[in-house]
Design a protein that fits this description.
The chain is of the alpha+beta class. The protein contains 3 helices and 6 strands.
Length: 236
Amino acid sequence: MKTYYIHNGTENSGPFLLDELKAKKITKTTLVWFEGMDEWKYAGDIPELKIILTVVPPPLKNIPPFPKEEKKVVSQTILGMDKSIFFLVCGILALIIATLIFNTYQDNRSLELEQKNKQTEFQNQQIELQQKQTDEEKIQIAIQEKIDTDRLSKQKKDSVNNRISEIKKILVVNNANLEEDQNKLMDAKDFKLLRTANERENQINLIEDDIIHWQNEIKKLENEADRLYLELETIH
């Protein structure tokens, strides 16, 4: 159904159906527009509107006309657009803006989360690398300690074995000296010529002192050797 818009000289109003337009009491000089027209026209120039035009009588001479109260027509447009279309456009724009803001927020959140994940991954890699370095250092320290322990054990074993070998050599000499003095004692006890009794007794005492000395030395060396053999068993 055709609708019409009218212009009162300051603003547009409408749309109106034909009956509604008749109620507006338009005159032939009222500007009217409807869809399909290139420009506004006077109502008197539009054939289908002639039947609803209100005839305005000429003013009476010498009688001033009563002031006519202008009717305020509520504008049905905003910025040249129909209100419903305007609010629809505003709603769409608000939805687009809200969507853009939400998408930007989501993108920022995703970027922030990705950065945090990368940072956490980097920190985990650093911790893992430090742990590996610490483990390697512990292994190297353990290896070095084992080497040092083995070296010290070998040195100690060598020292003990050398001392045992030295003791064995000394024992051979001391046993030989003991055997020699024992033989001397037997000879001194059996040989009685060319000596007085005191000389014989003194010689026997001296030889016996030497025998006791060698016996004590041999006993000390044997005890030391036994202790070293026991110590050698504890060295790994």
